[in-house]
Amino acid sequence: MIHQSPICMPIEDIQFADEQFDVVISSLAFHYIESFDMICEKIYQSLEPKGVFLFSVEHPIFTSRNEQDWVYDEQGNILH
32-74 pLDDT, tens per residue? Predict the structure, then answer.
């Protein structure tokens, strides 16, 4: 099932039926939650057997600093 409309609620409050999804994808969202273990358990329950959970998180080398900024070249253009 592909959801056609966004779900706007705290990720901790989302409830789906057991074994409903083949794949669950999250990009850069888990560093905002209180309990990573709880979210993983919910996702595990919502995945079909042999389902895939793919996620990305921010690297602590960037988030532990007080400032976050782009990396610029000599002309001031954003590199990454």
Answer: 788 889 999 999 999 999 999 999 988 777 666 666 678 889 9
What pTM, to 2 d.p., does this model score?
Answer: 0.65
Sequence-distant (≥ 6) Cβ neighbours of residue 4 within 8 angstroms: none
Domain boundaries, the chain: 17-80
Using the structure block, give the residue that is written with the tokens 């253009």.
Answer: 77
Structure tokens at 11: 């990720």
From residue 77, give the alpha-carbon distance in Å to each of 18, 62, 67, 70, 80: 48, 20, 18, 9, 9
What is the C-alpha to C-alpha distance for residues 61 and 1, in angstroms, rounded to an integer?
36
Token couple for 76: 């001031």
